[in-house]
Amino acid sequence: GRIIRRAEVGGHHAGLEVRNGRLYTANCAGNNTIAVYDEDLNFIRSAPTERGADGIACIDGTLYVGLGPVRDLAKPYRGNWFCKYDAETLKPLCKPFAVDHGSGTWLGVQNIATDGRDLYVGLYTPTEDEPNFIRFDRDFKVKGAWRLGVGQGIDVIGGAPGGAVRFVHAWTLTGPDNLPQALLRFAELRGESLLDVTKYETSAYEPLRER
Predict the structure, then answer these.
(1) What are phi and psi of 10, to 5 degrees?
(2) Are 122 and 154 in contact (CB under 8 A)?
(3) In whole angstroms, what is the distance from residue 141 CA to residue 12 CA?
(4) What is the model's pLDDT at position 208?
């Protein structure tokens, strides 16, 4: 939890991705851009997005970016905007497109993670009984949908046996003296089943607690 480097940025960083020594950010809330920094957080370049960027992942030189919820007041929000960008130039590779993934949408995408093959998208949903964790292929065809507490961050990590895909997802909580703390949980996608495999709960202010 030690801060080792800082960078002054504008707006709200709604998604982060690290690839090949570069940090890519998706920014919204008044600063609708994607931006890239080097490993020392030196700014390299940025590019505007048509909507607030709210999740980002990179596969083979292509950035996959969430651009907020589909807003149709005549019916429940269901679906999100996405776009693809070149990871080197940040130029769009297509026009923004809407994807109906079958779940209600509140604020858009929470995070996007990837195992290098598929995209794993965490959503803000208006109710807790709707799938909020969607697996897409690179063309945004839905390959599965589950309920997972994606919290404020999610990423794919290694170490899962038998070809499973393992995830870590972080929650921000209020700790002593109203200071923030992080709770980390783990899940694995095994075939069609998404399982919570957290053995220990970790936070910034408390020792590991076995579940």
Answers:
(1) -105, 155
(2) yes
(3) 28
(4) 60
177 contacts: CB under 8 Å, gap ≥ 6 = none
Distance CA(70)–CA(81), nearest Å, equals 6
Phi-psi region of 98 (alpha: psi -120 to 50; beta: other; left: phi over 0): beta
In one-letter notation, the amino acid at residue 87 is A
Q: CA triplet 97, 62, 107: central angle to 5 degrees?
A: 45
**Cβ-proximal residues to 202 (8 Å cutoff; 6+ apart), any chain:** 182, 183, 184, 208, 209
Strand 97-104 relative to strand 200-201, pairing: unpaired
165 beta partners: 189
Q: In this predicted model, what pLDDT tens digit does every residue of 86-105 receive, in sequence order?
A: 999 999 999 999 998 888 88
Helices (H), 66-115: none
Phi and psi torsions of 70, nearest 5°: -75, 120
The angle subtended at Cα 145 by Cα 144 and Cα 150, nearest 5°, is 130
Q: Give the angle subtended at the CA of 9 by the CAs of 38 and 204, to the nearest 5°.
A: 85
Residue with tokens 């404020």: 152
Report CA 192 to chain centroid distance, whole Å.
Answer: 21
pTM: 0.88
What is the C-alpha separation between 93 and 89, in angstroms, rounded? 10
**Shortest CA distance to 135 belongs to which of 164, 106, 162, 177?**
164
